[in-house]
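Researcher: I'd like a candidate sequence for this fold, 125 residues long. If you have to choose between options at a position, lean toward the conservative one.
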């Protein structure tokens, strides 16, 4: 599996303008871009669905496993994989969210059970 470059990871860790677009059911057409928070942990890029596993984009990402992200006027073809269920990784991701988004009133919900159960690793295709 491909890895993000160090430069990309550095940009992602600072960014607050990422959009995810998993494929629709046909596996060819990209879904509607959804603005999302992202964090970097151990050199990998992670996102969470605010509405947990009921989020449409999350369901598409898990079903299709691929799509794209848009970030800082760039588009990247991506692979989406389930990253929930590892207690140590969940703690690291929680810490990254807490550090990056500490001033936001939306932080506490992102650390709750629903969004934590909908954690996704995004890798380049």
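Model: Candidate sequence:
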């Amino acid at each position: 599996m491909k890895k993000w470059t160090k430069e990309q990871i550095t940009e992602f860790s600072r960014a607050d303008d990422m959009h995810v677009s998993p494929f629709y059911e046909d596996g060819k057409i990209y879904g509607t871009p959804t603005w999302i928070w992202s964090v970097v942990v151990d050199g990998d890029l992670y996102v969470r669905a605010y509405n947990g596993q009921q989020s449409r984009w999350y369901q598409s990402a898990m079903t299709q496993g691929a799509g794209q992200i848009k970030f800082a006027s760039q588009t990247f073809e991506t692979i989406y994989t389930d990253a929930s269920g590892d207690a140590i990784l969940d703690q690291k991701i929680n810490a990254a969210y807490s550090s990056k988004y500490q001033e936001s009133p939306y932080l506490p919900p992102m650390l709750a059970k629903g969004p934590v159960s909908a954690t996704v690793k995004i890798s380049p295709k």
